[in-house]
Amino acid sequence: MILHSHLDSWLETRRGLTDSLTGKSIGFVPTMGALHAGHVSLIERARRENDVVVLSIFVNPTQFDDPGDLAQYPKTLETDLEMARKAGCDHVIFPNETQMYPDGYRYRVSENELSKTLCGAHRPGHFDGVLTVVLKLFHIVQATRAYFGEKDFQQLELIRGMVKSFFLPVEIVPCAIVREGDGLAMSSRNTRLNHVDREHAPHFHQALSSATSAAEARRLLKEDGFDVDYVEDIAFGPSARRFGAVRMGAVRLIDNCEVQL
Ligand code: AMP
Q1: How far is the CA of 20 from the centre of ligand 1 (A)?
Q2: CA-CA-CA-CA torsion for 121, 253, 81, 74, nearest 10 degrees?
Q3: Catalytic center residues
Q4: How far apart are CA 244 and CA 217, in angstroms?
Q5: Binding site membership of 148 for ligand 1 (Cβ less than 6 Å)
Q6: d(CA 103, CA 152)
Q7: Quick check: CB of 178 below 6 Å from ligand 1?
């Protein structure tokens, strides 16, 4: 596994790959680190489906609307590298902010519909930051396929839309949500939950998936002591999904599941 803490090192390797690996596929998994089994499932899938697997670790400041959340975001680089190696990663890119934003974020991508709803309505500018960094990473890596978790379903939809709108030559591969044994969707932020909140957190998924309507899920969660940002049902083609976000102290959790409307 080759580590690239400076983008120039990767870009040089990338040029070499183009020369020596013509016709080989590259699978790309972008993350913010603090890896868990959810991330590993993406890396393993990329490993099965591509000749070369690239992982990026970058805690992207432009997608944080809350400076406290950015400061508290868990950083576990040593463990991440070990997990990436075990999962079969070939290259890990972990650039810093100056390398990723040579323009100081003067140039950015924005979307004006879906990104204003759900998480976007509660986190101003969040999806502009996500789309901008993902577009940069796509250009840097030039992957055949990029792997994204359905845990962040709204993000996945927005990235699919960006790829279509800008004719980006990459295939987006959606990956199922990986959950803890008690149903809580795995997330890097789960490690910030205190013991009591961690015990209580699985009720979030239970209420989302068992309620017969978004309104009922909202009511159940409020009665159960959650600070609810939103619960909404949205139709996607023939199926519908229920999206939710709650706060437990300083930690914000999101989840979604398929529902029958
Ligand atoms: P993050 O590091 O949280 O930005 O996530 C990096 C990628 O891993 C995103 O595509 C996420 O959707 C995906 N991911 C995070 N948690 C999970 C999970 N529990 N199951 C599946 N994918 C996940």
Answers
A1: 31
A2: 90
A3: 39
A4: 9
A5: yes
A6: 27
A7: yes
- Nearest Cα to Cα of residue 89 among 48, 49, 43: 43
Check residue 237 and give its pLDDT. Answer: 75
Query: From ligand 1's centre to the CA of 60, what distance in Å?
Result: 14
Domain 2-175 matching CATH 3.40.630.30: the answer reads no
Q: Is the CB of 228 under 6 A from ligand 1?
A: no
Q: Each residue of 232-257: pLDDT tens digit?
A: 999 877 789 999 999 999 999 999 99
Q: Is 42 in the pocket of ligand 1 (CB under 6 A)?
A: yes
Which ligand 1 atom is the nearest neighbour of the CA of 147? 10
pLDDT digits 0-9 by tens, 14-43: 888 776 666 789 999 999 999 999 999 999
Tens-digit pLDDT profile for residues 161-206: 999 999 999 999 999 999 999 999 999 999 999 999 999 999 999 9
- Residue 167 CB coordination number (10 Å): 6
Enumerate the domain spans of the chain.
2-175, 188-253
Which residue, by CA, sits nearest to atom 14 of ligand 1?
149
